[in-house]
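Notes from the pairing session

We agreed to fold both candidates in a single pass and log them together. This is the raw record for the first candidate, unedited. Please don't reformat it; downstream parsing expects exactly this layout.

Candidate A
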Amino acid sequence: MKLAILCALLLVVVLLLTMFYLLFQPGRTYQSSQPSLRSRQAAVGRAVLEAARNDTSTALMVRAAVQAAPEEDRTLASDLITALPRR
């Protein structure tokens, strides 16, 4: 009788430990998640603008790229582009 009670108690403890392990373990998607597309695009934009601030030829290429962009993008980038150095 004692052995059956001890086995049942051990089984309950093992099940509880397993449940807590599975409950609080970070999943694979959490561990291997990548930054969002928006944050990656923002990082590229910051790098390009920093390069354009430091180099006039890069600034000219960025200006040309923005002028070739759709109207909405040109409007959004207008204040950033005006801050870039001219020739």
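Candidate B (folded immediately after A)
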Amino acid sequence: MNNLLLILLISLPLVASSQNFELNKEAQQELKKLEFLLGEWRGNGWMMNQSQEKMPFDQTEKVTLKVGGTAILIEGQGEANGQNVHNALAIIRMGDETGKYDFHSYLQSNQQGAYKAESEMCSTGTPRITSDT
């Protein structure tokens, strides 16, 4: 067991030094198409609870570029009556195809999802994001 640990410790610098630290310009360009999402957003809405009652809430979203502009981090908080009713995190990154994105979401309940999304320009000049769900 000690020999295995020693081999792993000696090998670690070799693995770490083989990582590619170059900026992926293609991913950076794809994420620039979503820059309209960046910023801090506030609003309100409602959701249905298990009893089919409407529950209003106030929502804030903080959307930032991360990892050299190759990923977007979305942090969402929803409150109602002074209590947290929605706490979520999402990451958007370039997908396998041009104009397609990988969207991963995580909730405080430990629920998570992975979706494919794409961005397109509407005839009004407004960007629109659609998902496969």
